């Protein structure tokens, strides 16, 4: 399943997009800015679980959502702390905070959105390599699917590594194999050692079985939901 994403607002500042050096920046812009106006409620870009709700001197008030595809979305410069506690399940479009201008990097009220491969949710100690362009990433997933049941922590990724480079991402109801640790998404998942769980030492066959079982559970849920309609 490709997880469905949405842009939080229509007011996108593409003139200062991801990787931009506009405005006298000394480092590339690591996110994408939206300017709907101060006080606008910020909708989650995809379903997930709150993994961080914290203050950052540069980015101000931040909330981070872990998604079941292994990615993280970070929402910065919030006017106040998000009302959601760490571990809370979030559905796509659910308000996670309010647009503000907190933090030293804020240039007026706006939402600074980051999409990352690692649990930091922002830029992980100034390493732009852990972020991806939110505009392109979201646009490629506008027609994805939402989870069929409320998410919980056990739905979040478990990273399983196998000697020889194979990596798997497994949740309760979804599993994917990545055949090379040096491949784009595979590397990103392997690098996220602070994810919701990491397992090593299993054989390729054992991991394949776990992936198949997770996908079978997800399919059974989908079948039950379809039958009840």
CATH class of the largest domain: Mainly Beta
Main sheet specs: 7 strands, antiparallel
How many H/I helices?
3
Low-confidence stretches: none
**Mean pLDDT score, rounded?**
82
Portion of residues in beta strands equals 25-35%
Number of domains: 2
Radius of gyration, CA atoms, in whole angstroms: 18 Å
CATH architecture call of the largest domain: Distorted Sandwich
Number of extended strands = 13
CATH third-tier fold name of the largest domain: Glucose Permease (Domain IIA)
Protein name: Peptidase family M23
InterPro entries: Cell_wall_metabolism_enzyme, Dup_hybrid_motif, M23ase_b-sheet_dom
Pfam family, one: Peptidase_M23
Domain M23ase beta-sheet core: 28-116
Keywords:
229 residues, alpha+beta, Glucose Permease (Domain IIA), 2 domains, 3 helices
Describe the protein's topology:
Layout: E1 32-34, E2 41-43, E3 48-56, E4 60-66, E5 72-78, E6 89-90, E7 95-98, E8 111-116, E9 131-132, H1 134-139, E10 158-161, E11 167-170, E12 175-178, H2 184-191, E13 198-200, H3 204-228
Parallel strand pairs: 10-13
Antiparallel strand pairs: 1-8, 2-7, 3-4, 3-6, 4-5, 5-8, 8-9, 10-11, 11-12
Write up what this structure looks like.
This protein is of the alpha+beta class and 229 residues long. The chain folds into two domains: 14-139, Glucose Permease (Domain IIA) (Distorted Sandwich); 157-228, no CATH class. The protein is 17% helix and 25% strand. It contains three helices and 13 strands. The chain has helices at residues 134-139, 184-191, 204-228, and strands at residues 32-34, 41-43, 48-56, 60-66, 72-78, 89-90, 95-98, 111-116, 131-132, 158-161, 167-170, 175-178, 198-200. The strands form three sheets. Strands 1, 3, 4, 5, 6, 8 and 9 form a seven-stranded antiparallel beta sheet that branches. A four-stranded mixed beta sheet has the order 12-11-10-13, sandwiched between helices. A hairpin with a 5-residue loop joins strand 4 (60-66) and strand 5 (72-78). The protein is globular and about 50 Å long.
């Amino acid at each position: 399943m490709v997880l469905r994403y949405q842009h939080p607002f229509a007011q996108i500042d593409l003139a200062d997009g991801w990787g931009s050096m506009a405005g006298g920046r000394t480092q590339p812009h690591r996110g994408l800015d939206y300017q709907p106006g101060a006080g606008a409620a910020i909708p989650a870009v995809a379903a997930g679980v709150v993994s961080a709700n914290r203050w950052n001197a540069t980015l101000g008030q931040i909330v981070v959502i872990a998604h079941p595809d292994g990615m993280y979305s970070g929402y910065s410069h919030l006017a106040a702390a998000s009302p959601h506690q760490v571990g809370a399940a979030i559905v796509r479009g659910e308000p996670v905070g309010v647009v503000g201008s907190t933090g030293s990097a804020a240039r007026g009220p706006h939402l600074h959105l980051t999409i990352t491969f690692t649990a930091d949710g922002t830029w992980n100690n100034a390493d732009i390599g852990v972020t991806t362009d939110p505009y392109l990433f979201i646009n490629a997933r506008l027609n994805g699917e939402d989870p069929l049941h409320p998410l919980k922590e056990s739905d979040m990724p478990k990273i399983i590594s196998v000697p020889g480079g194979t990596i798997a991402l497994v949740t309760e109801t979804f599993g994917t194999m990545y055949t090379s640790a040096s491949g784009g998404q595979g590397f990103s998942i392997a690098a996220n050692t602070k994810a919701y769980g990491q397992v090593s030492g299993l054989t390729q066959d054992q991991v394949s079985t776990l992936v198949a079982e997770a996908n079978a559970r997800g399919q059974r849920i989908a079948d039950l939901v379809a039958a009840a309609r």
